[in-house]
Design a protein that fits this description.
Elements lengths: L20 H4 L5 H4 L30 E2 L6 E9 L7 E8 L8 E8 L8 E4 L13 E10 L5 E9 L6 E9 L10 E4 L11 E8 L11 E7 L4 E7 L15 E2 L5 E4 L3 E3 L2 E18 L5 E15 L5 E17 L7 E7 L13 E3 L7 E2 L4 E4 L6 E16 L4 E15 L10 E2 L9 E9 L2 E8 L10 E7 L9 E2 L18 E5 L4 E8 L13 E6 L2
Parallel strand pairs: 20-24
Antiparallel strand pairs: 1-32, 2-3, 3-4, 4-5, 6-7, 7-8, 8-9, 10-11, 11-12, 12-13, 14-16, 15-16, 16-17, 17-18, 18-19, 20-21, 22-23, 23-24, 24-25, 26-27, 27-28, 28-29, 30-31, 31-32
Length: 543
């Protein structure tokens, strides 16, 4: 939700309660939003649930709890070592105490037996002591990638918890020992009030050029949202993560259109005076690299309008989605120049089927924040490009105080499309979740290997009340025809009692033959654990 006027606005309104720098963060990632100073502990709903469905997943080895310590864990990421398929690293949020305002650290766990066990556990370093120490820091948005030599790269956000406005820096730490350690990180992008090059980074992703054919093999690319300009930006490293270009004293390379915030002239609304705030923002970006070094960044381009009653102390009146698109931006020259195409217009032919990141679902108590975030991949020949994301049949105005989200969304679907000409044009999107019911599906992710597409997502179809969720999976040899969805989880997760299970799940694999690993936020223990510590990170390997 947006209730902020920044210096970039055409019109500035002074003295409006609640319109501050912090409110812009409502559109940011959940890990950042949950650590803002104004946050309060989530209200807890009932912990009871229908009897959980249990059973072995098809084609997947049994589910593994990555780290069974008492800390709450979510927003997981996974990377598999291409030189050793038994070596994988899982990263995640790890809240260092009860619900907000306790600090979140970014944890890593390493396995040398294909994900059967994770004997290594550690926390990525921050640029100061962990909150609540004076001048303390927190972490958010953990993302992992591996290079062709078996080195791992961990991208994450460093939150300066005692600053106002909140400063958030983007860091990358490197492991050269199979994920056993991630020493001193490198500063990639700087947050607000940090001098030259200051931005407002959020929701980053990281990928490495690993292809033998590529002239840029070994390049590391990091993409992120910049809420100073409401754009998507990219930086790269050509020296194994020792430094990134442009340097943090300069702005990153913009790959998207520019967003904006604009305030309308006052107008009559009945006997009162109202005004509108229109916000266009780019968020939820993901990156993929082709066999010849081509770079693709996939992201959402969203525009919403919020209405306020100026006569009644600027009370919030209404919100409406004006535009929602899945976008692709491609570079053939290591990120110097970019060409954008529309992958999917989610408002074409009827009401918008997405509310960007300003959305909450309607079945859980309290409501869970959900959003539209595309993920993509490139086939080995470089011609076939694939994108997956979640859409919603119903998007209506319905403000939720617990998530600070304007739009209530329901009947989520997993959508997929491909390009067969290197991202120039895109085929009509198809639904791949194999369901005709109305229960929600969300948080899709994918990986591509040898032209085989592997997709995972969260799905509520096994629960007759539409609340509990499982992980499901489908695969395709060409991105055109998908297998029937298969269950990955051995037991359903109960989200009651929390409004946050992360913003994404993850999947990765190593070739020769493929070993696919999925990771997700799991809440099967909710009936026996306190709600505040029920989020666990689980993984499973595909046979």
């Amino acid at each position: 939700m947006v209730r902020i006027l920044t210096t970039a606005l055409i019109v500035t309104i002074v003295g409006v309660p609640g319109w501050s720098q912090a409110n812009k963060d409502r559109l940011k990632s959940g890990g950042v939003a949950s650590q803002l100073p104004a946050d309060a502990p989530s209200s807890l709903g009932p912990s009871g649930a229908p009897a959980k469905l249990k059973g072995p997943p098809s084609q997947w080895i049994s589910n593994v709890n990555v780290n069974s310590d008492p800390f709450e864990q979510d927003e997981p990421t996974v990377a598999v070592n291409p030189t050793n398929r038994a070596n994988l690293v899982v990263g995640n949020h790890e809240r260092q105490g009860p619900a907000p305002p306790a600090a979140i650290a970014c944890a890593f766990q390493a396995s040398l037996d294909g994900g059967v066990s994770f004997p290594v556990h550690g926390l990525t370093p921050l640029q100061g002591p962990l909150f609540p120490a004076p001048g303390g820091h927190s972490c958010s948005d953990s993302v992992l990638a591996a290079d062709h030599n078996g080195n791992f790269y961990f991208a994450y956000l460093d939150l300066f918890r005692t600053t106002s406005p909140l400063r958030v820096d983007l860091l990358v730490a490197t492991s050269v020992d199979g994920g056993a350690s991630f020493p001193t990180p490198v500063l990639v992008a700087k947050g607000v009030n940090s001098g030259a090059g200051a931005e407002d980074p959020d929701k980053e992703w990281i990928e490495v050029d690993r292809d033998l054919q590529s002239p840029h093999r070994g390049n590391i690319y990091v993409n992120y949202s910049d809420f100073d300009t409401f754009t998507i930006k990219v930086r790269k490293s050509t020296n194994g993560g020792l430094s990134f270009q442009p340097p943090p004293t300069s702005n990153g390379v913009v790959v998207s259109d520019s967003g904006f915030q604009a305030v309308s002239a006052p107008y009559l609304c009945g006997t009162h005076v109202c005004l509108d705030v229109t916000t266009r923002y780019m968020q939820g970006s993901n990156i993929a690299v082709g066999p010849k070094g081509e770079i693709y960044v996939f992201y959402g381009d969203f525009t919403e309008r919020e209405s306020f009653d100026a006569t009644a102390g600027f009370a919030f009146v209404n919100a409406q989605m004006l535009a929602a698109k899945i976008m692709s931006s491609k570079s053939n020259d290591e990120g110097a120049n970019w060409n954008r195409t529309v992958v999917r217009d989610m408002c074409s032919g009827g009401p918008c089927r997405s509310a960007g990141t300003d959305a909450h679902e309607t079945k859980n108590t309290p409501a869970i924040r959900v959003g539209t975030e595309p993920f993509g991949g490139v086939g080995p020949g470089g011609k076939n490009i694939y994108v997956v994301w979640g859409e919603w049949k119903s998007v209506v105005f319905g403000f939720d105080a617990g998530t600070n989200k304007d739009f209530a969304v329901s009947e989520g679907e997993i959508m997929f499309t491909r390009s067969t000409d290197g991202g120039t044009t895109w085929e009509p999107a198809i639904r791949i979740d194999g369901d005709t019911g109305t229960n929600d599906k969300f948080f899709a992710n994918m990986v591509v290997a040898a032209e085989q597409v592997y997709v995972v997502w969260l799905d509520r179809k096994l629960d007759p009340t539409g609340v509990d969720y499982d992980v499901f999976y489908a695969t395709s040899p060409n991105g055109k025809n998908f297998s029937s969805p298969l269950r990955v989880t051995t037991e359903s997760s109960n989200p009651r009692g929390t409004n946050f299970i992360g913003d994404y799940i993850d999947i990765d694999g190593a070739q020769g033959p493929m070993k696919i690993h999925a990771v997700w936020t799991d809440r099967r223990s909710v009936l026996t654990s306190a709600d505040s510590v029920a989020n666990d990170v689980f993984t499973a390997e595909r046979h």
